[in-house]
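In response to reviewer comment 3 from the previous cycle, which asked for concrete evidence that the modeling workflow produces usable outputs, we include below a single protein chain processed end to end. The sequence was submitted unchanged, and the resulting C-alpha cells are shown without manual editing.
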Amino acid sequence: MKERRKHPRTNIHFPVYFICIDNDGSEIIQDVAIVLNISENGILMETSCNLPNANYVKIMASTKDNSKIEVKGKVVYSITVAEGKFMIGISFQDASDKIFKFTKNLINDFRSNL
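The workflow returned the following C-alpha cells.
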C-alpha cells in the first residue's frame, strides 16, 4: 500500500481534552482521549466516543510547565476497535505556527516522561 501522508508520524501516548463541534457550531461531545501519534498534519487519538465524520474538534492539552495549548481539527475518520473504544483520525485546521507549537510541545512532554 502506498504511503499517502505528507509528514512522518511520531508515536506518543499523551492525554488530551477535546470538544466535538457539529456543523452548526454546537458543542456535542466533551471528553478525554489519548493521542497515539502526531504529525504536522494531524493526530490519531483513542477515545470512548465515536465522533461523526466531518465534525470539528478543539483539542486541548496542558504541558508539563502548565501552559495550555489548543488546536482545531476536522474528524477525517472514526474506526471502532473494540466495544466502547474508537480510533479517531484528525486533520489539523489551524495556522501552521500554532500546529508546530502544539506538536512540538506534546512530543517534548511525552519524551521527557520516558
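The mean pLDDT is 83. We consider this sufficient to address the reviewer's concern, and the full set will be provided in the supplementary archive.
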